[in-house]
Amino acid sequence: MFKDQAAAFGAENNRGDAAASMPNGEEPAINPDLIRREGFASEAEYRAYFATLGRDVSAPTEDHVGEPVRTSGEHILESRLQELRWELEILQARLHGIRRQAATVVTENLRWADSSAHAQLGDQPWLKLAGAMAGAFVITRGLKRLPWGAVMTTALPLAVAAMNRNLARR
């Protein structure tokens, strides 16, 4: 029964416009010129409508300071610039971390090399290592001065004879 009453109430009072009667039977106090069912046909009609409302749309209100509206291209470029700045900050932070890690790795490698040299060569390992390098240099210079043609002529038949003896034993 309530459903039928609501349907009847809606059917007799709903005229399909914004100036519909109120439920108590009174007509609303709305100026019919202010009611727009569809959009505006032109910019002039739009301004005229706001003039009837008592507002001038061309002048900003005192509480609203008009900012220049950015075009979509400027907005896109500005947002992309912000993204690139953010990515640059992230990359700089990562680079700082990598530099710190590289410095730590180098320091730790030097400590390891020093402790390894002490473990293998005892006290004053760098002095001993420098002595070994100097000895290798002197021996190399001495070997370069030998007459390798005569040495090979003499040593080659001796090496071949030693190899033949080893093959004959097997």
Protein architecture, described:
The chain has helices at residues 2-13, 43-53, 72-121, 125-145, 148-169. By secondary structure, the chain is mainly alpha-helical. Helix content is 68%, strand content 0%. The protein has three domains: 2-53, no CATH class; 70-122; 123-170, no CATH class. The longest helix is centred in the middle third of the chain and has 50 residues, at 72-121. Helix 3 (72-121) packs across helix 4 (125-145). The N and C termini lie far apart (122 Å). The protein is built from five helices and no strands.
Secondary structure layout plus pairing:
Blueprint: H1 2-13, H2 43-53, H3 72-121, H4 125-145, H5 148-169
Helix pairs in contact: 3-4
Structure described in brief:
This protein is mostly helical. The chain folds into 3 domains: 2-53, no CATH class; 70-122; 123-170, no CATH class.
Q: Characteristics of this structure?
A:
single chain, 170 residues, mainly alpha, 3 domains, 5 helices, 68% helix, disordered N terminus
- How much is the average pLDDT? 77
Helix/strand order, N-terminal first:
HHHHH
Question: Biggest sheet, in brief?
Answer: none
**Count of separate structural domains:** 3
Task: Please tell me how large the radius of gyration is.
Answer: 50 Å
Query: What's the number of helices?
Result: 5
End-to-end distance:
122 Å
Shape: rod-shaped
Measured by DSSP, the beta-strand proportion falls in under 5%
